[in-house]
């Protein structure tokens, strides 16, 4: 989806929070377009830039939140303490970027735990192959603790998408509640 579609969605759904995951080369180029289209969060891939801190500044300068994504083969330690502190959200991809419907890559899960240990107050998102069978390991307090979930196939292919959304939310909310006890 490009900026023109985002603009239409923004106009049609007032108040929508558009989390824009930019699987693009040269993510610096699209910040203004996405901001002008009403993007609320601009998430770029760490692998796609040489200067993540300047990019985060640029995103914040356009009044958007900044997300930093890592692909399955990128270690979580590539997100330095400075980058993690500057970002608003960290995204651990649990499939290779490119298309929906891929199998969840469980070996990526420990990266969520490592990031949660270093950045206890950040939003940490998982994206790729997440559904009722895999949500537990993504959300489970104490083991992993991602609090933002992207799910495509599990919802769009479900007989009852509303029920699946509720199930995913319930698992995350239960895990988050354990954390505050
Ligand atoms: O963009 C993606 C991969 O490039 C996402 O993983 C995808 O949109 C989520 O879909 P699914 O839940 O089917 O993995």
UniProtKB/TrEMBL annotation:
Root EC class: isomerase
GO molecular function: D-ribulose-phosphate 3-epimerase activity; metal ion binding
Protein name (Swiss-Prot/TrEMBL): Ribulose-phosphate 3-epimerase
Subunit text: Homodimer.
Keywords per UniProt: Carbohydrate metabolism, Cobalt, Iron, Isomerase, Manganese, Metal-binding, Zinc
Gene3D superfamilies: Aldolase class I
UniProt xrefs under Pfam families: Ribul_P_3_epim
SUPFAM superfamilies named in the record: Ribulose-phoshate binding barrel (SSF51366)
Superkingdom classification of source: Eukaryota
UniProt keyword Ribosomal protein present: no
InterPro entries in alphabetical order: Aldolase_TIM (IPR013785), Ribul_P_3_epim-like (IPR000056), RibuloseP-bd_barrel (IPR011060)
């Amino acid at each position: 989806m490009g900026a023109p579609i985002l603009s239409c969605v923004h106009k049609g759904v007032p108040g929508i929070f558009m989390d824009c995951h930019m699987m693009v080369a040269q993510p610096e180029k699209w910040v203004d377009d996405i901001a002008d289209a009403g993007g609320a969060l601009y998430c770029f891939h760490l692998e796609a830039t040489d200067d993540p801190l300047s990019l985060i500044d640029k995103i914040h300068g356009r009044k958007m939140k900044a997300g930093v994504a890592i692909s399955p083969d990128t270690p979580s330690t590539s997100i330095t303490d400075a980058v993690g502190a500057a970002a608003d959200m960290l995204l651990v991809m649990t499939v290779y970027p490119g298309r929906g419907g891929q199998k969840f890559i469980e070996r990526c899960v420990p990266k969520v735990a490592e990031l949660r240990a270093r950045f206890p107050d950040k939003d940490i998102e998982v994206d790729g192959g997440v559904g009722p069978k895999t949500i537990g390991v993504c959300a489970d307090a104490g083991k992993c603790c991602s609090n933002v979930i992207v799910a495509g196939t599990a919802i769009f292919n479900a007989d009852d998408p509303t029920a699946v959304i509720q199930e995913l939310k319930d698992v995350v909310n239960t895990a988050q509640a354990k954390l505050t006890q």
